User: Fold this.
Amino acid sequence: MVQQYIGASITRKEDERFLTGRATFADDVKLPGMLHAAFVRSPHAHARIVAIDTTAALAIPGVVAIFTYEDIADLAKPIPVRLYPLPSLEPFLQYPLAQDKVRYVGDPVAIVIADSRYVGEDALDVIDVTYEPLPAVVDIEDSLRDETIIHEAPGTNLAAHYVVSTGDIDQAFRDAEYTRKERFKTNRHTGNPLETRGMVVAYDSGELTVWGATKVPHFNREVLSSLLDFPEEKMHFVEGDVGGGFGIRGEFYPEDFLVPFAAMRLGRPVKWMEDRLEHLIAANHSRDVLCDIEIAMKKDGAILGIRAQVYGDMGGYIRTHGSLVPASTAGLLMGPYNVPAYECGVHCVITNKTGVGTFRAPGRYESCFIRERLLDMAAADLGIDPAELRFKNLIQPSQMPYNAGRTRADGDTIFDSGNYPQGLTRALDQIGYAETNPKRWVDEAGRYHGIGIATYVKNTGRGPYEGARIVISGTGDVAVYLGITTMGQGHETTMAQICADSLGVSMDAVTIYHGNTDYIPFGGGTYGSRGTVMGGNAVHLACQNMKERILSLASTYLDTEPANLVLQTGEIFRKGAEQGPALLSLGEIAGLAENPGFNEEGSGTLEITAYFEADQLTFSYGSHAAHVAVDPETGKIEIIRYVVVEDIGRAINPLMVHGQAVGGAAQGIGATLLEELVYDDSGQLLAGSFMDYLLPTSTDVPPIESIVLEEAPSPLNPLGVKGAGEGGIVATGATLANAVSNALAPLGVQITQLPISPNFIAKLLSS
Amino acid sequence: MTTERKIRLTVNGKAYESLVPVRMTLVDFLRGELDLTGTHVGCEHGVCGACTILVDGSAMRSCLMLAVQADGANLMTVEGLAEGPELHPLQRAFQRNHALQCGFCTPGLLMTAYEFLRDTSSPTEEQVREGISGNICRCTGYAPIVQAILDVSQEAG
Amino acid sequence: MKPARFDYYSPDSPNEALELLGQYGDDAKILAGGQSLMPMMNMRLVRPKVVIDINRIAGLSHISPRPDGGLAVGAMTRQRELERSALVLETAPLLSLAIPYIGHFQIRNRGTVGGSLAHSDPAAEIPAVCLTLDTEFELASSAGERTVKAEDFFLNHLTTALEPAELLTQIRIPQTVGNWRWGFQEVCRRDGDFALVGAATMLRLDDRGICLESRITAFGAGGTPMRMNAAENHLSGSSVNADDRSEAARLVSDALDPISDIHASAKYRQDVAGVMVRRALEQALLPMEGEDAA
Assistant:
């Protein structure tokens, strides 16, 4: 294929509507007669619901209806797990409304429908819910004692426990010349897309339409269909413009049932726009992981084995991500290294906090922090340079594909391709590692400087399938309907690049449509950096099939063999005579397809739908490096330099890839230094607004040095691509913690938990 | 009880007159009553900057103003930046530099940058970072936004 | 996050505002810049029955030189105006130094001097600076006017000497006579956030560099900003050398009893307040424009 667009840093086709304020986000959708929803949410972390009195609220002019569990009881079913299911998780799932008990602050108890959100909130003020508070469990170890049981039926707070292992771990520890055991904790935090969740739902003439869908609309439609007992074919999920997702938005939440329920019951469109305070207690939290880990090594630094216990604080209910966060922590805990023996117990622990789901690189930010910190500690103990220790243990290119063994409940982890030492070398070169000696020092102002590094590997491109549907019209315009969705990644441009090159048309002729369940019968959605791998390859496959079809039609018409023709910039040429006049245009071919007399296949339109299948993950990888300076008197950390190296196999649009890397790194910096969803002992979220939940601003993020490598294309898909959505964030906790620990090593500080706040540094320094 | 007031104001050069509930915030008024949905709601407590507009030439958080307070005022929102089909230099620079991904923070940032550049000639990178530090972006990591603003300030000479 | 219902007035004159205040008292809230009040109203943390919007009252926003050399600043003066004022820079440079630390410029475009003072967040910059400058507060009610000194104005966390029926109309910053130098330091999680803890200092030195008078305010370390008298006394008569500064810092830390919150422990605030004082003193001693290094 002539490659004109793939690999080029093309600025985005879709930008104009965002720049001029003409995009259509969920709250921009307005329908005649639209009502507004607000939710009664539990103010208690753990309590029985004794009574709900809605009399005063219903008397407020403009309040139309209030629905509680009673009203949905006939339909009430738990929201199913989408990823990482386990049988033992079933009793812990969340129903759309609390029935007898509430299990976290924010647990929805009722939905109010009113003329405006203002009036809806007036109703919330006077709805009288009588609660009988119960003791709140907010700590993993506390919860595991099972003294206060949060879900009565299973009778335990341990929602799941399983062990993964590979090799002989006991032998590894018998052979060990050095061991180190540590406990690590990553902070509960979340993605906070700038747009909160929201939707508009209309039930009209027997059809249900949901605006504001995204991430996995086909899956969510299936879930809603099941919960409402309403046919899928009559449900239309529409994705407009989306203000970021990061894994948080787009899963099926209680509100995703309740708002459609209300719209159908009332026969009027209903809008719900979540507010920020609500988002912080109602949308998924993430990353709350505790890990006890022990490493066995030879004196020369060769890793013999790792054994660990991973505890995920799941919150009050298991949500759509099942065991994913702790499971994924265990899944790549060994990282891109030769670890001959590995054993990890995975525990899903229920507490009285908001439910947990994925946030960009779920389980991987956590495991990278845990492992890379431990490696730095081992390096210091053994007197080996941290980078040297990595090189000694990194999986070599000659070992690819590398089977890391059974690190997941459902199978082995196999790294498809990669040159891990090269990624690390690149990062070290960029930060000037070799030239910086020593790697820690104190400046004239008394600040402690340090360099830190970390290496990671990241799963991308999850299957099992993804679809693309291409329709070419009589004008020669190419419409591509994606099964994947978009929340800022630039798919309207990158998928057009792939289509244009794969088909042989100008990019201007291509328009990308996404996220609407009417566009394509089956779609996998966008998450886990699968958009380009799965969606891009689906487009590519559909284009290949379409090109074949086009050449077949053209060759029949021109009375020649398809092999004698080429399709280029939207026109058919005789092979070898591409400089000469075109024989047919795409539009004319579309006409041929529509001509019943001519078209043997009789489809009526020039249309192809294709599904790309993948049963294996493809792994991106890289390294981060940072130079920090710590003020020991205030505990404040300045990031002087931050380097991200990521090998994604092949970049469709380098501008977009850098955008993802830099954006991800910025999020990771905020998560590591600033953000924490702090709960008090009674289960109240103390960081309940942006005054206390601190997101990184432009002065918190240094210029990120982003290096994108294409040294190890994926052998698992025709485009050779790996996903690029998460590499920027994976190693941020590890890298910054290593840099700070390195800087403060003379003062005896070793970071084993996040976030690294000034107060935390001060505390470590004084002890 | 004064539950409603009539207000007259100009937005992007166009005059409006409206009867508004006194408790309605300015951002809700712009979005709901005037259908100017380019200005966004991100937090409703004055931190994220998504709702930034110009009020009588000064950038302000419209979630922290009541609509009634805009009576007699001259507002500018993102919809007023372009001159018909002609994009403003800031808009072009954002596009060139890939300074937006999901686009939700973009209008607020454009209005912030508009005042910042009007009042600061030849800013350094550090000054630009400080100038936009009252606007949160979750997608870009800020670097391309800073570059876009520097581009425009350099274009201006 | 929409405000609860309220009755709304936007008086044109101070008298009208005072009459309304007199009538509604505790049931009313004054709406000035709104940068503190509106978030609380949007979150329904406060639900005033009556909102008295004073943005339309002429005469409340001004920066005027006083005949005795000081400065009078109207309560409705926007923080951004203070930030850009040459007069403020000339007569109360400590204020000019501190204002850019307040939030972000969009907040300062709307936020007012009076609003910040009446709200009295313990970690806010303007109250700390006004305390350091021995500012006087002019309060008005329909019963008359009274002047309150800064040391009597800030009573406790979010609590001032303002009675329910009173309005802060202007502040008077006395002229600081003599050879004064100043410093301002704060530490916060992010630029523009409320300080975890901070310090404002002023030093008056004689020609030999001996300290004749010092003013030291710690903020974010208690219910209100506080003048640190023990440290101030220690510096008087000293050359404010490194040992003097360290001792002043130690005296400051010893005298404080801060709160703990999710951002910083009491110990952190206590210790770092001392560091801020020491650094603000160092900053005050830096050569000023036109001076040779000491």
Chain B is about 30% helix and 15% strand. The CA atoms of residues 116 and 131 of chain B lie 7 Å apart. The domain at 89-156 of chain B is CATH 1.10.150.120 (DNA polymerase; domain 1).
